[in-house]
Amino acid sequence: MTYIPEALRRLVYERASGRCEYCLLHSADGYMPHEVDHIYAEKHGGVTAEYNVCLSCFECNRHKGSDLSSIDPLTGEVIQLFHPRRDKWTEHFRLNGAFLEPLTPQGRVTVFLLQMNNPKRLLEREILIEAQRYP
Ligand SMILES: [Zn+2]
Q1: pLDDT in tens, 26-68
Q2: How far is the CA of 116 from the centre of ligand 1 (A)?
Q3: pTM of the entire structure?
Q4: N or C: lower Cβ tally within 10 Å for the chain?
Q5: How sure is the predictor about 2, in pLDDT bands with cuts at 50, 70 and 90?
Q6: How far apart are CA 121 and CA 125, in angstroms?
Q7: What is the phi/psi pair of residue 28, to 5°?
């Protein structure tokens, strides 16, 4: 695991207001600490710099791993994942209650690969919405 300088870690956390930049879960509500994710993994040449890192919850980061793209479950095309530094969240996703609804092929592969709507995560968001802690 790469060393992330404390100043960069703080910048990433503050820039994201403590929320996972994929699923919007707040770090105070995760059962594991949020992590600094290399959007383009180091094994693909991604560097440890502001423009290539984002705040990710444990679940999103584990499912994403070092992947850059996935296969669109609707069309079978290879599509790049949502890129939190280049892409605008609201153009690719919309919340329908606790359900994270993808709006684009990029949104679709990201929701699919990161398993953002698996039953456990849906239930977690339902509970947080009920408690007015999400989004
Ligand atoms: Zn997440």
Answers
A1: 999 998 999 999 999 999 999 999 999 999 999 999 999 999 9
A2: 7
A3: 0.96
A4: N
A5: confident
A6: 6
A7: -70, -15
Q: If you measure from the C-alpha of residue 74 to the centroid of ligand 1, how many angstroms do you get, rounded to a whole number?
A: 23
pLDDT score of 75: 95
Ligand 1 centre distance from Cα of residue 62 (Å):
10
Q: How far, in Å, is the centroid of ligand 1 from the Cα of 54?
A: 11
Q: How far is the CA of 115 from the centre of ligand 1 (A)?
A: 10
Give residue for tokens 């990161």: 114
Angle at 87 between CA 60 and CA 50, to 5 degrees: 75
Angle at 77 between CA 73 and CA 82, to 5 degrees: 75
Domain spans of the chain, in order of start: 6-130
Segments of the chain assigned E as strands? 35-38, 53-56, 69-71, 78-80, 93-96, 99-102
d(CA 7, CA 108) in angstroms, rounded, equals 33
Main-chain dihedrals φ then ψ at residue 79, nearest 5 degrees = -130, 140
Query: CA-CA distance, 129 to 18, in Å (whole number)?
Result: 17
